[in-house]
Amino acid sequence: MARRILWGSLALAPVTILLHYTVHPSDVVEFILAAVALIPLAWLIGEATEQAAHHTGAGIGGFLNATFGNAPELIIALLALNKGLTEVVRGSLTGSVIGNLLLVLGFSLLFGGRGELDRESSLISLGLVGLAAVLLAIPSVAGWDGDPERHSLAQLSIPISIVLLVVYVGVTWFNLRRHHRLHAAAESADDIAWSLRAALLVLGLATLVTALVAEILVGSLEVFGEKAHLSDFFVAAVIVAIVGNAAEHGGAVVVAYRGRIKLAAEIALASSAQVAVFLIPAVALLSWLIEPLALSFREVEIAALAGSTIFTFLLVFQGRSSRGRGVALITAYVVVAAAFFAAGDR
Q1: Taking 90 as the threshold, does the pLDDT of residue 296 lie above it?
Q2: Residue range 63-89: mean pLDDT, rounded
Q3: Complete domains list, the chain, with CATH
Q4: Euclidean distance between CA atoms 191 and 61, whole angstroms
């Protein structure tokens, strides 16, 4: 039933694009339409990526997941950067990491109930996020005094980004060898329904349409925030981050509801780590093709990132899940969202 709804809701994307270029609705309407349209597109990108991974093997499949699984977030970040919305870029990235750690994992544990987690894999993912928080604090602390956009901070972000990417490649290779992709064992041959050509074609088209819809979303973000009396930072760190992670959000919860709590937790934690040590440094390096981005996150972002990592670590350290732990994580996310709301724009 859910898949039918998602397939049907894909029509929202062309409708949104058509309305944007013909009717020219208000920015508030455009933002809402674009945000909703991105959800099934994110799901379709995730679906096509998984189908392609069945044919390409673990190595290339992992690369496809890393590249295209975060395509909506990457596209939104680069488009926002092109418009000079650096606070939106940083907010959407930290919001994505925290959203996966607290909100996605929280709902996964809530719907999955009692069960066992892959303790080693969970701690590795949390370790990666913790490492990212420590390294990102270096340019961030320097940016708390003076201009956070100054060129020297963008230059300082380069070696930090390279270190994070090297760590990501090394740990990903280790995990691929250890798991041979954890979720592969949980799926049957019936799940392989697409040819490689079809999967890659859908992947390319979905990414292209996502870019068009994301451009509409970013273009209407500032006016939407103003009309809704929300800061651009809050809209990016909470609303845009949730929309960009729609594939992980929905996928993890569905898997947890079906009783595969170990896989659901892996999706949430691995996605969080992937954004922290892959997407953030990738955006920082790619930004030099547009406008150099300094990884100078605000105090509230670094505090929320570090706090979320420590809190999640304490809850999953024993390698067990429960609905109570899920509620605790969701409650923590509400607290973080409230802090982002109170922080306003810098």
Answers
A1: yes
A2: 79
A3: 2-343 (1.20.1420.30)
A4: 15
